[in-house]
Amino acid sequence: MPLKQKVAGKLISFEGSEGSGKSTQISRLAAHFQKTHREVVSTREPGGTEIGEQIRNIIVHNSKGDEMCAETELLLFAAARAQLVREVIAPALTRGAIVLSDRYLDSSTVYQGIGRNLAADPVAQINRFAVGNVMPDVTIVIDVPTSVSLARLKQRASDLPDRMERENLDFYTKIREGYLLLAKGLPGRFLVIDGTKTEDAIEKKIWAEVSARLA
Ligand code: TYD
Predict the structure, then answer these.
(1) pTM surpassing 0.90?
(2) What pLDDT is attached to residue 150?
(3) In whole angstroms, what is the distance from residue 192 CA to residue 182 CA?
(4) How far is the CA of 44 from the centre of ligand 1 (A)?
(5) Of all protein residues, whose CA lies closest to atom 23 belonging to ligand 1?
């Protein structure tokens, strides 16, 4: 399905390693926008639609997941995203909503491209095909040192780490560096936030920067 040009709404994506504190900051940013009486739609990747949740289960919780090749992983993430864009994000933007996405196409660029060493060109093409013209207006990378993100992961109450979280220190270092490199190349879209500050300080910084950029 071709996507029409998006209007009035704004798409803000959140990126970063696991344990970077994205979900807390997404709720806090949503609360700021709600006070301005804007419609706010929060989505998460992979998932956010029924089809996407099924795909997410295959990727993240499949016990034999270790055998999944990087190419399959990329295509499954892209498939979930294509569905989310057409079913949820594009209609919300057309209504004029603020859409806050917990991960978006940059996750594939960094995790599958840089983390799993897939060539940059096909990853970029598949990303573009999946999202059509629905690109984020602002992308917030919450940056934390790898040691901090791994320590936070270990503290999480969940019993067994899921497949993606079993990756090693080197992998997460590559992910962190990948995001920083991407952000450096696209300073107009990206905003890198120091995730080691307090939650309140991060919230304040994000709100100040986002309102200035969207003004
Ligand atoms: P999940 O537990 O849903 O989210 P998070 O870690 O952001 O709280 O796990 C999603 C995992 O999938 C996470 O390790 C990042 C990874 N991922 C990719 O590798 N590529 C992608 O395109 C996306 C959207 C996620």
Answers:
(1) yes
(2) 84
(3) 10
(4) 9
(5) 107
Ligand 1: atom nearest CA of 78 is 22
43, 101 contact by CB (below 8 A): yes
206 vs 48, residue with greater confidence:
206
Give 208: exposed, middle or buried? Use CB within 10 Å, 0-12, 13-18, 19+: exposed
Distance CA(149)–CA(72), nearest Å, equals 26
Tell which one of 27, 54, 103 to mutate to probe ligand 1, the residue whose CB is within 8 A of the most ligand atoms: 103
Q: CB within 6 Å of ligand 1 — which residues?
A: 18, 45-46, 60, 77, 103, 107-108, 111-112, 164
Distance CA 21, CA 195 (A): 7
Q: What is the mean pLDDT of the chain?
A: 91
Q: Are 46 and 60 in contact (CB under 8 A)?
A: yes
Distance of CA 138 to the CA centre of its chain: 12
pLDDT of residue 205: 98
CB 52 within 8 A of CB 83: yes
For residue 44, give the ligand 1 atom closest to its CA: 3
Q: What is the pLDDT of residue 124?
A: 98
Give per-residue pLDDT as tens, 106-122: 999 999 999 999 999 99
Residue 155, by phi and psi: left (phi above 0), alpha (psi -120 to 50) or beta? alpha
Task: List the helix and strand counts (H, then E) for the chain.
Answer: 9, 5
